[in-house]
Amino acid sequence: MQVREGGDYSKHRGEVPGPGLYNHAMSKPAKAQHCDVAVVGAGVVGLAAAAGLALAGYHVTLIRREPAPPPRASDPPWDERVYAVSPSSRGLLGALGAWDLLDSARAAPVYDMRVYSGSELHFGAYEAGIEALAWIIEQDNIAQALEQVVSASGSVTQVVAEVAAADLTTDFCSAMLTLESGERLQARLVVAADGADSPLRKMAGIGFEEQVYPQRALVAHLGIEHAHRDCAYQWFGDHGILALLPLPSDEPGGQGRCSVVWSAPTELAGALAQATPEEFAQRVQAACGNALGNMFALGPVLGFPLRRRVAASLLAPRLALVGDAAHLVHPLAGQGLNLGLGDVTDLVAALKREGAPDGDDPGRRLRLLRYQRARALPIAAMGTTTGALQQLFDPATSAALGSLAAAFIATRELGWRVLERAPVLKRLLIGRAIG
Ligand SMILES: Cc1cc2nc3c(=O)[nH]c(=O)nc-3n(C[C@H](O)[C@H](O)[C@H](O)COP(=O)(O)OP(=O)(O)OC[C@H]3O[C@@H](n4cnc5c(N)ncnc54)[C@H](O)[C@@H]3O)c2cc1C
Prior knowledge:
The chain is an alpha/beta fold.
């Protein structure tokens, strides 16, 4: 078995840092500390939420399981986990001051996207009138930029702790979090950014709907013979959904590099999991019809389960869910993190004080409802679109249709061709994809 279990796609791999890295004590909080907002979880979404709410004028306590990683080395090893960051997410990272802190030599713009399913669909930044369709950036690179913003903020206190219990109805004006140490933190609002298996969501009694996809995502970096020309590629077919995302070369004029995300049907994923990284590179090369010439392994192959989840509500009294705690989507559109960063943008907007006097309450129900309303459509639309596309190309769908399968596939191909010839529809799709 060559494939490594990737765990959470975004899980931090930081080492334990030495003391003195933080502008605020990382020690356990004193008893019954108070804050405006407690953000639980320091993934990319939690870090962005802490930074955004601090910028909006709130005193934030960021509760994290692990200390922040040490500052990024000048040329660190590549992180297999990369994100296609949408223009809207770039806007948020810019507003938070994180965009300029990224290691820009390790971010690649995507100017074109080519999607194949029998015929070809082309999306271009030029025709959409935007700078780039997305930027491909390593998880570590984004997280480190946000870590810098958060540690430089005078309004964020960081606490390394695990939340053991949440009392959301202790009184009308605050929630009480009990940490595993037994110490307590009183907050006017709790923002749960604690990932797909969100303990806070469970403590708040919020259920969720779940669909487990009969697929597994295999992720790796591959060297490529032909230049990718800042183009992202995606193939839909019986092999599942195969995406090649452009990354910068290791050195100017050096060998090209791309990130592969292969959402393969379970059986095929099992076979691919037995392959060496070199054999995996050859399978990818064959599945994409040599689109980028010879391919070479540049590191390990990581595997991730694929699920769709939507929380029954984004809210409980004095609590809001953001990021994967609120929704999980199929990575075929590369939008999970973008959706979470959209939550942050809308949450900060809904909680803005709008000239209210200091001491204004961020956990007021009306404000939280404003947040939930703003997110209803984007979350539903992303879940439905990615779910439908997954199903449309799932071999199990054709198999279940029996003798109707050929007609179904023909209709699918026809729809694809219509889309390529309908600039208005394509523009709509690009708009949805870039958030
Ligand atoms: C194969 C694959 C490819 C993907 N590609 C893309 C892409 O191209 N673009 C994109 O936008 N998205 C992509 N995604 C989705 C993206 O990875 C997630 O949507 C995103 O990382 C979610 O971030 P998060 O901060 O909400 O959750 P997480 O990153 O899971 O963070 C949760 C944090 O909370 C902490 N935590 C949990 N419980 C507690 C507790 N009790 N107390 C304190 N801390 C706690 C955890 O330790 C963790 O640090 C992809 C996903 C997969 C599987």
